[in-house]
């Protein structure tokens, strides 16, 4: 047996008044001190000892793999590099499968990816080639 559902009429539905909405918005808005703290954390996360994350990762991969070509870019709207894309050509990749190549790169930048405040949040793309494949 099907019963009818009682739906509230539109006249019973109330929307909050403007002062109530203003109080709710003020309660949700961060204070200037909180906003400054978030901005500081973001700046610290993006910079490592006055260097961008991209520069730090470039230096670490160069030291670990001695690539013949290396390009690391901050992805999308993040030029400092919490999301990065890597293109690397290195002799160290010769004869290795894709997963082992990725492991070598991740090992080089592992410190940059650790912890909740890690400068590198994700590697969005990785193209890793041996010189014979270029």
Topology, element by element:
Layout: H1 18-28, H2 32-46, E1 47-48, E2 51-52, H3 53-65, E3 69-74, E4 83-89, H4 98-108, E5 122-129
Parallel strand pairs: 4-5
Antiparallel strand pairs: 1-2, 3-4
Structure, explained:
This protein is an alpha+beta fold. It has a domain at 43-133: BolA-like (GMP Synthetase, Chain A, domain 3, 2-Layer Sandwich). It contains four helices and five strands, in the order H-H-E-E-H-E-E-H-E. It has helices at residues 18-28, 32-46, 53-65, 98-108; strands at 47-48, 51-52, 69-74, 83-89, 122-129. The strands form two sheets. Strands 3-4-5 form a three-stranded mixed sheet. A two-stranded antiparallel sheet has the order 1-2. Strand 3 (69-74) and strand 4 (83-89) form a beta hairpin. The radius of gyration is 25 Å and the shape is elongated.
Observed structural traits:
19% strand; alpha+beta; 4 helices; single chain; GMP Synthetase, Chain A, domain 3; elongated; 37% helix; 134 residues
Helical percent range? 25-40%
What gross morphology would you assign? elongated
What separation lies between the terminal Cα atoms? Answer: 71 Å
CATH overall fold name of the domain at 43-133: GMP Synthetase, Chain A, domain 3
> Mind describing the biggest β-sheet?
3 strands, mixed
Structural class: alpha+beta
Pattern of helices and strands = HHEEHEEHE
Count of DSSP H/I helices: 4
**Cα-atom Rg, whole angstroms?**
25 Å
Structure summary, number of beta strands = 5
Q: What is the average per-residue confidence, as pLDDT, rounded to a whole number? A: 75
Q: Identify low-pLDDT runs.
A: 9-13, 38-50
In spatial order, strands of the major sheet run 3-4-5
- CATH level 4 superfamily of the domain at 43-133: BolA-like
What is the CATH domain class of the domain at 43-133? Alpha Beta
CATH architecture classification of the domain at 43-133: 2-Layer Sandwich
Beta-strand residue percentage: 15-25%
């Amino acid at each position: 047996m099907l019963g009818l559902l009682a739906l509230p009429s539109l006249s019973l539905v109330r929307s909050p008044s403007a002062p109530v909405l203003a109080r709710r918005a003020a309660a949700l808005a961060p204070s200037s001190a909180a906003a400054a703290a978030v901005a500081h954390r973001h700046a610290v996360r993006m910079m490592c000892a006055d260097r961008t994350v991209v520069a730090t990762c470039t230096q670490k991969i160069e030291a670990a793999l001695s690539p013949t070509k290396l390009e690391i870019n901050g992805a999308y709207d993040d030029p400092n590099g919490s999301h990065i894309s890597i293109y690397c050509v290195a002799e160290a990749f010769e004869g290795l499968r894709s997963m082992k190549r990725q492991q070598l790169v991740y090992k080089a930048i592992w410190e940059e990816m650790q912890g909740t405040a890690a400068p590198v949040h994700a590697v969005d793309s990785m193209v890793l080639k041996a010189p014979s494949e270029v």
